[in-house]
Amino acid sequence: xxxxxxxxxxxxxxxxxxxxxxxxxxxxxxxxxxxxxxxxxxxxxxxxxxxxxxxxxxxxxxxxxxxxxxxxxxxxxxxxxxxxxxxxxxxx
Length: 92
Hints:
Elements: H1 7-19, H2 27-38, H3 43-55, H4 63-75, H5 79-91
Helix pairs in contact: 1-2, 2-3, 3-4, 3-5, 4-5
Organism: Salmonella enterica
Protein name: Sel1 repeat family protein
InterPro entries: Mitotic_Regulator, Sel1-like, TPR-like_helical_dom_sf
């Protein structure tokens, strides 16, 4: 389903690879699936990509991109993204 473009399945694969749930943990694969789902405006994928860019998990650390993904997630109603965005502004 994820390969056919189902954003929910793509997010689930991102979670599975990110947590190493039943598979070897692989942040690169997690980021790949989150990017696919984020391109379809998945709030969970947008938030998780913000986190991945903030931490440098599976991607090159980039606080500007982290902010952009968090902001997009905030516009979709993510309270977690609001919190992380606030902390990111305090850090920078």
